[in-house]
Amino acid sequence: MLMINIAIIFCSIFALPTNGLSPQCLNSRRQALGWIAGGVSAAFVAQPAGADEGGVNVGNFLQTGMVSQPMGVSGQAGKSRPETGVVLRDGSDILRDPKTGNVLAEIVVASPNGKSSVLASFSSPWALAKGSFFDVECRDSSTGDGAFLSVTSDIGGKSISEITNKFILDNLLAPTGRFSFYGPPTDVKIISSKVEGDYKIVDLSFSTISQATQTEIPRKARLAATIPAGTNQVVMLVASASAIRWKKGSDKIIASTIDTFRANPAPQSKMKIRAKDRS
């Protein structure tokens, strides 16, 4: 019944049709996921990370070694890709409906019994970022506004109310993290932090290093963090914009994006949970 309820809850998030199927018909993970796919087939378009709507022009990058975007993940050839902790499940793809912005990804996280599969979803006004530099991320390559999924290290059995801001920042702003590509962020400040049900909402500000000028650029972000039932890691959606754009309205867009974030256990099955090959 758990997997049935999760499927129903997920579809209710995006107000998806049930296609006439009753909960009693959803008696396997394959059927449950198939039901979800059936409900969104007219809206969701499969967009593998290497062939999505917007982001890095890989061909141009290979030729020039540069990325023409404010918050690009790579401006120098040879740099390692940022680490977000996100691991996609083998056999799955990132889905985004270009009309509504609804995004769905099935990721693998640690659990007391080994590995668990989690369905992470949110609604984004930005295109799905493409290329091997990105995990699950949507962004506007012309402004640098965007949102991405991030997964922390093991939480040691803590609840979301016991997860400290320091733990979140240590994972999010790690030297190999998404915001640390040209050096660790500076002037990091927690603006607000609160727990709402199963989610912790954190507003923060920091400065990142500009690829073009090597100067610090003030940036603001909001994140929602949760611990999916039966797992040992925090799953987060992090959305950010430059401080200038934040004041010009990006804060409202980011707030509405964060409000749509959900991360719940995927329907159970006897199929082995494997990480997707990233090569």
Q: Keyphrases for this structure?
A:
5 helices; alpha+beta; five-stranded antiparallel beta sheet; single chain
Describe the protein's architecture and organization:
It is built from five helices and 13 strands. It has 279 residues and is α+β, with helices and mostly antiparallel strands. Strands 2-6-7-8-12-11-10-9 form an eight-stranded mixed beta sheet. A five-stranded antiparallel beta sheet has the order 1-3-4-5-13, sandwiched between helices. Strand 11 and strand 12 (233-242) form a beta hairpin. The radius of gyration is 18 Å and the shape is globular.
Low-confidence stretches: 1-13, 15-77
The gyration radius over C-alpha positions equals 18 Å
Write down how many β-strands occur, each being a DSSP E stretch of 2 or more residues.
13
Report the mean per-residue pLDDT as an integer.
Answer: 79
| Structural class by secondary-structure content | alpha+beta
Helix count, DSSP H or I runs of 4 or more residues: 5
Q: Concise description?
A:
By secondary structure, the chain is of the alpha+beta class. It is built from five helices and 13 strands.
